[in-house]
Write a structure and sequence with these properties.
This protein is of the alpha+beta class. About 25% of the residues lie in helices and about 30% in strands. The protein has a seven-stranded mixed β-sheet with strand order 2-1-3-7-6-5-4, covered by helices on one side. It is globular.
Length: about 160
């Protein structure tokens, strides 16, 4: 293959990229010393949240966009299975309201907003938090990027944050 990069040059580029990403994360995503646990620090470039509710059982299926987290309350005590898909983290008020509606531990919300969390599972008595990395191809250029995806589970209810 003509002009193909050598393995050595590819490794050098990956090493340089890794250093740049690590430096960026250190500077941009960690809380200042003295910040209280559970503090939500919203990235100024984060997208405004969009909330989708998916509710189903063997007889019915509903998928709808909701304007406010409180619209999910009617589905919490139902016999059906519910998923809430939260896309975007750009509004502290909506995130805090999600926390109140679903009785989420404050550290769960902080972990979800802190986009450099390592993959992990946290057990908060009646809640589980799963954080993983998802590899996504770049749309306009060659390569991939990694983004965080988080799942909370509450009994039969699931909340997904991509």
């Amino acid at each position: 293959m003509p002009n193909a990069p050598s393995a050595k040059s590819m490794i050098k580029k990956l090493h340089h990229f890794s250093k740049a990403v690590t430096k960026s994360f250190r500077n941009d995503y960690y809380h200042q010393p003295g910040t209280l646990p559970g503090t939500l620090i919203i990235d100024e470039n984060a997208e405004f949240p969009t909330i989708f509710l998916i509710d189903y059982n063997q007889d019915s299926f509903i998928r709808k966009q909701v304007e406010a987290p409180e619209e999910c309350l009617d589905y919490l005590d139902s016999e059906s299975v519910s998923w809430v898909d939260l896309q975007g983290l750009g509004n502290q008020d909506i995130l805090q309201r999600m926390g109140r509606v679903f009785d989420l531990h404050p550290l769960v919300l902080e972990d979800v907003v802190n986009m450099v969390e390592r993959p992990k599972i946290e057990d908060y008595e009646d809640q589980l938090l799963f954080i993983a990395r998802m590899v996504v191809p770049k749309e306009r250029t060659f390569g991939f990027y990694s983004e965080q995806v988080s799942f909370w589970t509450l009994d039969k209810k699931k909340i997904v944050r991509e």
